[in-house]
Amino acid sequence: MSYWIRWQLGDIPLGIGTFFIGRSPAAHVVINDPRVSRSHASLTLDESGMVLRDLNSQNGVYLNGRRTTESPIVPGDRILIGGQELELVEFVGDRDRHNRVTRRELSTTQRLQHQQQIEGASPSSPLVPEAEPEPDPEPDSGLSTRRADPIELLATVAEKTLSMGRPADAERMMRSHMKNALQAARQGIPFSPERAERVAALALRLAQALRKAEWVNYVFDLYTVLKMPAPASVVETLYTLVRQVPDVNLAALRQYIQILRGRVSELGPAERFMVQRIEGLERLVASI
Q1: Alpha carbon 126 to chain centroid, angstroms
Q2: Under 8 Å CB-to-CB from 160, ≥6 apart: which residues?
Q3: Please, which residues have CB within 8 angstroms of residue 193's CB and are 6 or more apart in sequence?
Q4: How many CB atoms are located within 10 Å of the residue 133 CB?
Q5: How confident is the model over 197-206, as a mean pLDDT?
């Protein structure tokens, strides 16, 4: 029986000891992503099981959609670091056959370390001496870790989960982050139109998959707080969904429209047209 980390570049075997994941070339799993710290996370395997740890990273470690600092993990668990999803898998069978990992994009360091493991080296004996995890570069070095939006980090995983026919899992993964985003908007924290559109699009995907009015109403609440017309992509999706999803909150939509009407004089022609489309949405919901 063996444990492996499965990710987009192939399967990497794990043995007793500690594996490091990060942007540093000395890591066992090198993720070249500006959202990933040089020493981002570690996996430690011993006789009692496996533990995932966040090594004080800038953007955090997510286990099955929830941020964690230290957690035991078992086969089937999914880890999100930066924009990369990794899965812990258990393999029972021909170890030599399964050792044929995909190598075409692995870094030189990873290839050598993988070969060491196949030949029986301890995973806690990396190519460079194992000491304290390497600190991130200074902020002005050009390589510092960029703070990422948790919704942006998790959206790809949520989309995959939805495409696999598991909308309830996607909702559990995203609910707290979506609610936090709305609360941040209410507190006046800057919220760009682009981010609002991404968040609204994800909410509507959940509404469509789950047939839940809650996520349609979420979009009304978000744009009410932001006091801006929703973009065409969001409005056109709403026209489709309000016919499919029962119990859409007409009062919330009307409140949103009232906010927009109070700002019409400040809006450009394209935005005023979107206000008219949203007013038409009110008539549609009222007629259902």
Answers
A1: 29
A2: 85
A3: 228, 231
A4: 20
A5: 95
Single-letter residue type at 5: I
Backbone angles phi, psi at 5, to 5 degrees: -100, 120
Residue 128 Cα to chain centre, angstroms: 31
**What pTM does this model have?**
0.59
Question: CA-CA distance, 282 to 274, in Å (whole number)?
Answer: 13
> Nearest CA to 21 among 81, 66, 77?
81
Q: Indicate the pLDDT class of residue 26, thresholds 50, 70 and 90.
A: confident
For residue 12, the model assigns a pLDDT of: 79
The Cα 199–Cα 190 span in angstroms is 14
Contact 115, 28 (CB under 8 A): no
Assess whether pLDDT exceeds 50 at residue 283: yes
Query: Collapsing DSSP states into helix, strand and coil, what is residue 174?
Result: helix
With contact defined as beta carbons under 8 Å apart, do 12 and 101 qualify? yes
Q: What tokens appear for 17 in the block?
A: 């000891």
Q: Round to whole Å and give the CA distance between 23 and 34.
A: 8
